[in-house]
Amino acid sequence: MTSDPIHPDPVCARLQALIHDVPNFPKPGIVFKDITPLLADAQAFSAAIERLAGRLAAHAPAGIVAIESRGFIFGAALARELRLPLLPVRKPGKLPRKTVAARYELEYGSDALEMHADAIRAGVRYAVVDDVIATGGTAAATAELVRSQGGAVACYGFLIELSFLDGRRRLDGAPLEALIRY
Ligand code: AMP
Q1: Closest ligand 1 atom to Cα of 70
Q2: 49 CA from centroid of ligand 1 (Å)
Q3: Average pLDDT of the chain to the nearest whole number
Q4: How far is the CA of 133 from the centre of ligand 1 (A)?
Q5: Distance linking the first and last C-alpha atoms of the chain
Q6: What atom of ligand 1 comes closest to residue 167's alpha carbon?
Q7: Residue 1, pLDDT score
Q8: Using one digit for the tens of pLDDT, what is the confidence trace for 95-139?
Q9: Closest ligand 1 atom to Cα of 30
Q10: 72: CB partners within 8 A, 6+ apart
Q11: Radius of gyration in angstroms for the set of CA atoms belonging to the chain, rounded to a whole number
């Protein structure tokens, strides 16, 4: 896969150079985007958070809804940067109190995501955050969780959008911010 930076932004181009393509992981045919070299570069990670925080702030979210597990890395840092509440979305069975769940389809079978039933406040707009958007199923299920509790999606924030998979088509049209596109 080529890595043509669509952004002329030199900061984003520098971030993109720190994403390593790992072919055939976790299974044949998948090119895994390894973000660990970016995380290991303190200046790059800091620049990524500042840049994404600025983009999300323009949509005035009142909280950050972060998706397990790599979404927590970015969601937590963004919540701290923007001084916003952080609401974790977890794999089933991890949250200790009453939860709400959304199921979503995978290539084979289905999976589910959960939030605490009292996490979302009705009428409030949230930013949904993950490291990568691929087919969009994970982000779409998270948006469904937010909406099912009376909240709204102000925007989506990702480090990376795999735009050739057109995941954004599965979302609701709320603005999508991604620093790096393939
Ligand atoms: P999707 O539901 O297809 O949009 O997949 C998004 C989730 O899967 C995110 O939580 C990503 O961390 C992970 N993911 C999907 N594809 C990749 C990839 N090529 N490289 C790294 N992570 C990926």
Answers
A1: 12
A2: 19
A3: 95
A4: 6
A5: 8
A6: 4
A7: 45
A8: 999 999 999 988 788 999 999 999 999 999 999 999 999 999 999
A9: 19
A10: 66, 88
A11: 16
Residues in the chain predicted with pLDDT less than 70, given as ranges, are 1-7
Q: Which amino acid is at 168?
A: R
Its pTM stands at 0.95
Ligand 1 centroid, distance to 54 Cα (angstroms)? 23
Would you say domain 10-181 falls under CATH 3.40.50.2020?
yes
Using the mean position of ligand 1's atoms as its centre, give its distance from the Cα of residue 124 in Å.
27
> In the structure, which protein residues have their CB atom closer than 6 angstroms to any atom of ligand 1?
30-33, 67, 70, 130-139, 167
- In this prediction, residue 156 carries a pLDDT of 99
- For residues 36 and 39, what is the distance between their CA atoms, to the nearest angstrom? 5
Q: What was the pLDDT predicted at 107? A: 76
The whole-number pLDDT of residue 9 equals 87
Q: For the chain, how many residues are written?
A: 182
Name the closest-CA residue to atom 5, ligand 1: 134
Q: Is 42 exposed, middle or buried (0-12, 13-18, 19+ CB in 10 A)?
A: exposed
Distance between Cα 131 and ligand 1 center (Å): 8
Domain ranges of the chain: 10-181
Q: Residue 122 has which token pair?
A: 């009705």
